[in-house]
Design goal:
Elements lengths: L14 H4 L10 E6 L8 E7 L2 E7 L12 H4 L2 H5 L7 E3 L8 E3 L1 H19 E5 L2 E13 L5 H14 L1 E6 L4
Parallel strand pairs: 7-8
Antiparallel strand pairs: 1-2, 2-3, 4-5, 6-7
Length: 172
């Protein structure tokens, strides 16, 4: 007997358990991030090796989650590495039945063109003699994956565009 009466020391070790190492040990860097799901803002440590995300775990230094993640947050590695992740923009032209792949620059240009056109066509300087300076042709409905900072920036953007229908629904 080695005096390990609790069975948690040398008597519990095996060659296999001695060879074990944390799966994050080989990471080149750790990037601090925020979980993208419910807007609580749980901290995450994102482990990167050779330019690729290899593991995501709760950040023990986060005052919000103190290293804990819910099941969705714990599975967020799949957002970056899962085979179902879309890596390009999809566009379905009017009256078409199939989606087309478009590069991100093209998609962003298409969005900007539509926002400018809609704002120009629906701009209202006044209504019934009352100055409004608004558009009713643009609205925003945010969901639960937006954190407070993103909601703040979206609100600023849409307000600057003259939109007044801006909402965030955490249960979506």
């Amino acid at each position: 007997m080695s005096g390990d009466w609790s069975g948690r020391g040398a008597s519990a070790e095996s060659p296999g358990s001695k060879a074990l190492a944390p799966r994050t040990r080989t990471a080149d860097k750790i990037v601090r991030s925020i979980c993208p799901y419910c807007a609580v803002g749980c901290g995450q440590n994102v482990y990167v090796e050779d330019g690729k995300v290899t593991q995501i775990e709760g950040d023990p230094d986060s005052p919000i989650s103190r290293g804990r993640l819910c099941p969705k947050g714990s599975a967020s590695l799949q957002l970056t590495t899962g085979p179902q992740r879309e890596k390009f923009a999809l566009y379905r032209p009017p009256h078409a039945s199939d989606w087309q792949r478009v590069d991100l620059d093209t998609a962003m240009d298409m969005i900007a063109d539509r926002v400018i056109k809609t704002r120009r066509e629906t701009w209202e300087w006044d209504s019934d003699g009352v100055r409004t300076r608004r558009t009713l042709g643009i609205a925003s409905l945010g969901g639960a994956t937006l954190d407070n900072e993103e909601n703040y920036l979206i609100k600023k953007l849409f307000t600057a565009l003259g939109a007044i229908q801006i909402e965030n629904q955490a249960r979506i």
